[in-house]
Amino acid sequence: MDTRPTRPFRRIDEKELRRMMKGAPVRYIGLGTPMALIALWWNRIRERRQMARDLQTFPPEVLEDFNMTRESALKLVNKPFWRA
Asked: What are the φ and ψ backbone dihedral angles of 82, each rounded to 5 degrees?
């Protein structure tokens, strides 16, 4: 049995990022561009801020659905945006 902790979030590959950015201005398309990196970071910032706001109201059952404890969720929320 694998005892490693599961990652609550996963890395986004180029194909998925393009799908997420569909309809975005052309300057955001392509992972090699600085604007694509900024867009990716901005999405992480938004997700983590939202999670930080909602974490106070999450019952333990919700966190269990994501295989997380409150401590691991706080650790994720406080992680810098440039770290996946």
From this structure: -80, -5
